[in-house]
């Protein structure tokens, strides 16, 4: 399959970015003859639209908008470190910066380019079938653009024509209500769906199923905001004008119905299925799940839409930042993505299916004590640190590098301390003791390059865990920015199933029997053999685990208005493996992440500030 890569963007810039060209042609119009005089010119312009589209992938940064950051040192600050999935090994933050995810100017720049594309299509010298497809892609990209704008800003100006600088009525478009904006997104997707082909062989360009997947996601988001607005109501002019909020329970039910309908059509007609849904055992389940993210081309039956990376130095840097300290080779930075013990706790156990299964570290079963090591507590003891996770869902092993697990043929040493033979604890600090001629070190080894945890260095985890999902064991890091070429899955079948389940549970509409079947189908793929009932709790836990680290969790917290309750004077926490020299066994301690602070999320952050209101004359969002 052909990948629409940066090469086409370079063609676009080369053909249409020079000063002489701009001097010769009006800057507010587009000439289809000039732009599409060659097949490469047409592909280049279309590639540029996809390039700008708000795909929240490996290069999506909260401080860098939705841009590709080929060579920027963004410190590994990815959205997965801004909520309750993980924390950055060096920095501590959640999504409380007003300008996190700012996409006003980039979004409307893309919208202008899409409108220019709409104007050009009728004049192209191509057959009607090709024009219909191009219209379908244009509608898809327009809907994608407004979906992103709606979830960031609420109601926004809906602009479907290129503005005329000499006519102010085309330049100063007021904000639509939030409801009108969501309705526009869904209606635009309907326009895309009827025009796009059902051929899904090229997963890097939109087709009918891509548009249905986006509609499933967007309708669920709109429904959640409508239903749960009252969990965090706001006030002010934008609220009074219904530019944010203002939707009813009836709106929520209608949006849930739209999600169910789009999901059902894709499920019933799209020919998709889960990748390797019947593993023989837990280990096979883990590997089947992991390989899909290592190389999405291995899972064509589940993958709906991909953003591809083809060229080193023009790829992404996710594995560079995510690599363990022990395997970073010549790359100077690593270990930035540190999953939280709260995330690890979410994975079920096979012996107690359908329940949250917190990691138990003491004989009294208490898992809510985060006060660190206490010599008076009776800790469970393990010969092998991996034994404490032995009964956990296979997706844990597939998604997270656990203490002392194997990666790239090495044991990844993640240890936070020792208890000396006299009972003295040495935790997250340098220490050693020799017993029977062998020296034991607090971090599990003498040389910092030989271990990967708790050194209080940016290259070492401070939670006890590192990320495994998306990483390729055959990748050798080099000191070259953006040298990772693994592809990003933007839409996959499992997400659509999860969207359907949630919409059914939340609305009472749809087929509850099928929703329960889909819930257990996903769990069976993870090695579970016992079915569980369709409940809101089970669906949301399954969603969190199945879509872990895929940049979905942060928006689940936003759309369901749960971010401000999850982060209300909250610390994030670690699980620290400690080697007890008195018993020569490992114990585990739950504690606050060292160097982290308490965080609260204010409800007004559910909407982001609109830029340039002194010139665009728009009503600002609440409390900005």
What would your notes on this structure say?
There is one protein chain. The protein has 20 helices and 14 strands. With 624 residues, it is an alpha+beta fold. The chain starts with 5 loop residues before the first helix and ends in an 8-residue tail after the last helix. The relative contact order is 0.14. The model is unreliable at 1-28 (pLDDT under 50).
Quick recap of the structure?
By secondary structure, this protein is of the alpha+beta class.
Name a few traits of the molecule.
disordered N terminus, 14 strands, two-stranded antiparallel ribbon, 624 residues, 9% strand, single chain, alpha+beta, four-stranded mixed sheet, 36% helix
Distance between the termini: 46 Å
Q: Kindly state the number of beta strands.
A: 14
Structural class: alpha+beta
**What is the radius of gyration computed over CA atoms, rounded to a whole number of angstroms?**
25 Å
Number of helices: 20
Strand content: 5-15%
Share of helix, binned = 25-40%
Quaternary organisation:
single chain
**Overall mean pLDDT:** 92
- Strand order, sheet with most strands: 8-7-13-14
pLDDT under 50 segments (min length 5)?
1-28
The major pleated sheet works out as: 4 strands, mixed
Broad shape: globular
């Amino acid at each position: 399959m052909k990948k629409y890569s940066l090469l086409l963007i370079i063609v676009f810039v080369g053909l249409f970015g020079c000063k002489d060209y701009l001097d010769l042609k009006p800057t507010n119009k587009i000439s289809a003859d000039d732009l599409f005089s060659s097949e490469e010119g047409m592909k280049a312009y279309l590639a540029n639209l996809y390039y700008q589209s708000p795909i929240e992938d490996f290069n999506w940064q909260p401080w860098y908008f939705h841009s590709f950051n080929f060579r920027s040192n963004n410190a590994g600050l990815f959205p997965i470190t801004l909520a309750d999935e993980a924390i950055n090994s060096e920095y501590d933050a959640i999504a409380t910066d007003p300008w996190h995810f700012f996409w006003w100017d980039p979004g409307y720049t893309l919208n202008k380019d899409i409108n220019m594309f709409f104007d050009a299509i009728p004049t192209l010298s191509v057959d009607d079938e090709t024009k219909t497809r191009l219209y379908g892609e244009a509608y898809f990209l327009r809907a994608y653009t407004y979906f992103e704008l709606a979830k960031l800003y609420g109601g926004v100006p809906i602009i479907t024509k290129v503005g005329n600088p000499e006519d102010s009525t085309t330049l100063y478009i007021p904000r639509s209500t939030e409801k009108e904006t969501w309705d526009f997104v869904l209606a635009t997707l309907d326009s895309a769906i009827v025009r796009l082909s059902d051929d899904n062989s090229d997963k890097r360009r939109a087709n009918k199923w891509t548009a249905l997947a986006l509609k499933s996601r967007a309708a669920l988001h709109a429904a959640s905001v409508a239903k749960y607005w009252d969990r965090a109501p706001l006030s002010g002019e934008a609220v009074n004008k219904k530019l944010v909020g203002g939707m009813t329970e009836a709106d929520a039910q209608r949006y849930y119905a739209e999600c169910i309908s789009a999901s059902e059509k894709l499920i019933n007609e799209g020919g998709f299925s889960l990748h390797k849904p019947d593993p023989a055992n837990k280990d096979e389940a883990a590997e089947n799940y992991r390989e899909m993210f290592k190389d999405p081309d291995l899972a064509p039956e589940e993958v709906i839409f991909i953003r591809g990376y083809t060229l080193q130095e023009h790829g992404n840097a996710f594995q560079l930042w995510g690599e363990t300290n022990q395997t970073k080779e010549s790359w100077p930075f690593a270990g930035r993505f540190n999953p939280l013990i709260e995330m690890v706790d979410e994975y079920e156990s096979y012996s107690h299916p359908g329940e949250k299964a917190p990691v138990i570290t003491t004989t009294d079963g208490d898992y809510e004590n985060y006060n660190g090591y206490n010599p008076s507590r009776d800790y469970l003891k393990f010969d092998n640190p991996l034994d404490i996770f032995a009964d956990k869902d296979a997706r844990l092993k597939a998604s997270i590098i656990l203490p002392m697990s194997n990666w790239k043929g090495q044991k990844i040493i993640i240890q936070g301390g020792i208890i000396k033979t006299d009972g003295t604890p040495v935790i997250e600090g340098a220490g050693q003791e020799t017993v029977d001629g062998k020296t034991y070190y607090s971090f599990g080894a003498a040389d910092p390059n030989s271990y990967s945890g708790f050194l209080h260095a940016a290259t070492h985890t401070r939670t006890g865990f590192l990320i495994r999902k998306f990483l390729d064991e055959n990748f050798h890091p080099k000191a070259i920015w953006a040298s990772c070429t693994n592809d990003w899955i933007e839409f996959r079948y499992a997400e659509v199933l999860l969207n359907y389940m949630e919409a059914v549970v939340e609305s009472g509409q749809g087929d509850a029997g099928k929703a329960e079947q889909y819930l257990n189908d996903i769990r069976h793929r993870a090695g579970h053999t016992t079915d569980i009932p369709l409940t809101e709790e089970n669906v949301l836990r399954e969603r969190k685990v199945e879509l872990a680290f895929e940049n979905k969790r942060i928006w689940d917290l936003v759309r369901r208005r749960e971010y401000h309750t999850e982060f209300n004077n909250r610390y994030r926490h670690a699980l620290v493996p400690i080697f007890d020299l008195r018993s020569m066994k490992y114990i585990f301690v739950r504690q606050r992440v060292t160097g982290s602070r308490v965080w609260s999320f204010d409800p007004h952050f559910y909407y982001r500030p609109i830029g340039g209101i002194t010139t665009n004359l728009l009503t600002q969002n609440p409390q900005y």
